[in-house]
Amino acid sequence: MRGGGRNVYPIYQFKKSILKMNRPDIKMVDLQGQYLRIKNEIDSAIQEVLMSTAFIQGPQVKSFTEALSKYNNGVHAITCANGTDALQIAMMALDLKVGDEVILPVHTYVATAEVIALLGLTPVFIDVDEKTFNIDVAQIESKITKKTKAIVPVHLYGQCADMEPILKIARRHNLHVIEDLAQAMGSDYTFSDGSVMRAGTMGVIGCTSFFPSKNLGAFGDAGAIFTTDASLAEKMKMISTHGQKVKYQHDIVGVNSRLDTLQAAILQVKLKYLDDYTLRRNKAAQYYDTHLAQVPFIELPYRAKNSTHVFHQYTLKTKNTDRDKLKKYLQEKGVPTMIYYHIPLHFQKAYHQKGFGEGSFPVTEKLSKTVLSLPIHTEMTEDELSYICETIQSYHG
Ligand SMILES: *Cc1c(COP(=O)(O)O)cnc(C)c1O
């Protein structure tokens, strides 16, 4: 006879706890799951392009461009090869001259600064607001000089920068505003008079990316530009296709930055689901907000009152604990996390300028040591969310 009632119970408990520890397969983003839910639609859209062989400037590029324009309240849309090119084309279209200064937040993805430097312009970094992670509006005016030509607010992690004061400053100093909405497609900003505008439609130009992991993601590189100005729209379309309006007639210097027909066909299908994707991301964020509210060593993402959040990232800040140890602990328990961005731009070799020492941008420097982005995507299950929250709660840093 094996064992008595007494030692059966602990074995059962042991098994149960193993069961409980069965790790869901958690990913930062689940592009496969997202694809599988709309596989038929996507596959037939791809098939259509393959059979037509109209790989460059096929009809899907035009119809997707129209759908994009409609999504962003009717402003002009121009598609291009990626979000970095979108920013470059925007700056080329505004005729900025070598040596002109462009203001941008220092806490951003490298692409924002890269195109400025590439065109021979001078990036002028501004620290960010510790709560919103977006450009600290109060610091902009003190950095404006005679050479300043543009401000590039970045709507980081999915929430709009504080556009009303930014637009006011720009008007006062006659500056262009180019929005970088690569992380905030579909986010809405509310002005003090109650009017609501979409990310990418408030400045003279808005630039976005359809990198696969972005909120609206292609199956490769892709991007788009928005503008309310018809002549700028025309010019940016020309720049994106070798500076030509008529084939083989090149009126201005351009680049080769077309959106592939295949990507347009895929994006056209996915654009229909973007609002649902945003809802799903918000549900996951809400779950985190509720279940992590009591965890003492983290600060939850702040919700700005004047912007909706599309949760490209759900980014925590650690408090009085070693962020990297927490990250490692979570990794060991099967919870992936990411750090956006762990080396501030002013410490990057390519973007270092004279006088940029420790303490030049204290908020960004602090964020580089404390931010931690949790998995968030359109396919998250309650099991995954609860496992992630329980794992964070189990940490004793
Ligand atoms: C992704 C991203 C870009 C660049 O987009 P690509 O399509 O990768 O070139 C630019 N700015 C920000 C803030 C981004 O997140």
Would you mind describing this structure in some detail?
The structure is a single chain. With 397 residues, the protein is α/β, with parallel strands linked by helices. The protein has two domains: 18-32 and 273-393, Alpha-Beta Complex (Aspartate Aminotransferase, domain 1), CATH 3.90.1150.10; 39-271, Type I PLP-dependent aspartate aminotransferase-like (Major domain) (Aspartate Aminotransferase, domain 2), CATH 3.40.640.10. The chain has helices at 5-21, 31-37, 39-52, 59-71, 83-93, 110-118, 163-173, 230-240, 261-271, 274-292, 323-332, 362-370, 382-393, and strands spanning 76-80, 101-105, 122-126, 148-151, 176-180, 188-190, 196-198, 205-209, 223-227, 244-246, 249-250, 298-299, 314-318, 371-374. The strands form four sheets. It has a seven-stranded mixed sheet, sandwiched between helices. Strands 12-13-14 form a three-stranded antiparallel sheet. Helix 4 packs parallel to helix 9 (261-271), helix 5 (83-93) packs parallel to helix 6 (110-118) and helix 5 packs across helix 8. The longest helix has 19 residues, at 274-292. The structure holds pyridoxal-5'-phosphate. Pyridoxal-5'-phosphate is lined by residues 82-84, 108-109, 111-112, 154, 180, 182-183, 209, 211, 221, 223. Pyridoxal-5'-phosphate binds next to helix 5 and helix 6.
